[in-house]
Design brief:
With 391 residues, the protein is an all-alpha fold. It has one domain: Amino acid/polyamine transporter I, CATH 1.20.1740.10. The chain is 81% helix and 0% strand. It is built from 17 helices and no strands. 55% of the residues are buried. Its main location: membrane. This is Divalent metal cation transporter. It comes from Clostridium brassicae. It is found in: Membrane.
């Protein structure tokens, strides 16, 4: 199996996670917590690994998608999970399309709605190519590399206080629970956890013999998303530690502009568009992968469903705008979907009718259960204390 499939799934997962919300969260929380945000990133990376390793492994071993595994654990659960994932994916895709429009607006000064429609056309074109899977993998890799390289340039220009960042990552001044839930939900919540696993299945990586390939792909995906999070954290920290104020209307854009002037602002346009367009593709592909196994006609019309998904997201944004409250509510729900999906997968790991004679490592089960418990507690706490403030 060549590295392009392993990296393709890794970049699909990572670039699905790195969307407009990811850029905004990273800068806003760094502005609020300063160097202590490093601790939040560290904890979220540990929780990400615990969730992704378990879910990807059980998908690859069982040779089944998340919704089919859930239906075998409890009949009907797969349909419920699929409904949650598709609703979340659609809501996030409205934000992703908006972000793509904003990115082109920064780069070429065109109307964000026109930019959104152009971006949707580019995303649809990728799925119209005969070898759509390979085209998607390659596009995610190219855009991912561009994002990382230009952000490294901004970080080196900004000259962040690295010693302080490292120190506060392990000994933070404050611990902010809401930011941990938001980061984990935004990186492995909802459809994102399944993006890479489902892509590996479609590319033929399945069965116990392919566990090493799955593991390499999973760690690569978490590593890419984490590297981008750390780079954004350092760039923002460099700006706020100099006493400069972020623009509340567009925090990530102000970070790039304050760190590297007008060139930095244009680089933000590149990063925003790359992050948004790859998230549009990842959300559409993964959301449809959650319903295509429910009937042969859905399976046969997979590409058409993906295109409809992108078109609907674009129409909603163009005519209604970005429903902020809906996006925040779905973001919190994404954090709650994770304990349900991960908990289901951990039960599936011990069901012979799903995994055969495969033996799931005890340490991975314990790791997974800890993530389920922590995310259930944090998710419910957020729903009770934070969500009512929205309405």
């Amino acid at each position: 199996m060549n590295w392009s499939v392993i990296l393709g799934a890794a970049f699909l997962m990572a670039t699905s996670a790195i969307g407009p919300g990811f850029l905004t969260q990273s800068t806003v929380f760094t502005g609020k917590l300063g160097a202590s945000f490093g601790f939040v990133i560290l904890i979220s990376i540990v929780l990400d690994v615990g969730a992704q390793l378990n879910i990807w492994r059980i998908i690859v071993v069982s040779k089944k998608r998340g919704q089919d595994i859930a239906n075998l654990v409890i009949p009907g659960l797969g349909y419920f999970v699929a409904a949650l994932v598709v609703m979340g994916g659609l809501a996030f895709n409205i934000g992703n399309i908006a972000g793509a429009g904003l990115g082109l607006n920064v780069l070429f000064n065109i109307d964000p709605k026109v930019g959104a429609v152009l971006s949707a056309v580019i995303a649809i074109t990728i799925f119209l190519i005969k070898e759509a899977g390979k085209a998607m993998d390659r596009f995610a890799q190219i855009m991912g590399f561009i994002m990382i390289l230009v952000t490294i340039y901004v970080v080196t220009t900004a000259n962040p206080p690295l010693a302080t960042a490292v120190a506060k990552t392990f000994a933070p001044d404050t611990i902010d629970m809401m930011s941990i839930v938001t980061l984990v939900g935004g990186t492995v919540g909802g459809y994102i956890t399944f993006a890479g696993g489902h892509r590996l299945l479609d590319a033929g990586v399945q069965g116990e013999e392919d566990i090493p390939k799955m593991t390499r792909s999973c760690f690569s995906g978490v590593g890419i998303a984490s590297l981008m999070r750390i780079l954004l954290f350092l760039a923002t920290l460099a700006v706020v530690s100099k006493g400069l104020k972020l623009d509340p209307a567009n925090p990530p854009a102000s970070v790039f502009k304050l760190a590297a002037g007008n060139i930095g602002y244009k680089i933000f346009g590149i990063v925003m568009w790359s992050a948004a367009i790859t998230s549009v593709i990842g959300a559409a592909y993964t959301s449809v992968s959650f319903i295509k196994t429910f009937s042969p006609s859905l399976q046969k019309n997979e590409k058409l469903l993906i295109i409809v998904f992108i078109v609907v997201s674009t129409i909603v944004f163009t005519f209604i705008g970005k429903p902020v409250k809906v996006l925040i509510l779905v973001g919190a729900l994404n954090g709650l979907i994770l304990p349900i999906t991960l908990g289901t997968m951990l039960i599936a790991a011990y069901r012979k009718n799903i995994v055969g004679n495969y033996k799931h490592p005890i340490w991975m089960t314990i790791f997974g259960v800890l993530v389920v418990v922590i995310m259930t507690y944090l998710g419910i706490d957020t729903m009770i204390n934070e969500i009512p403030k929205l309405f």
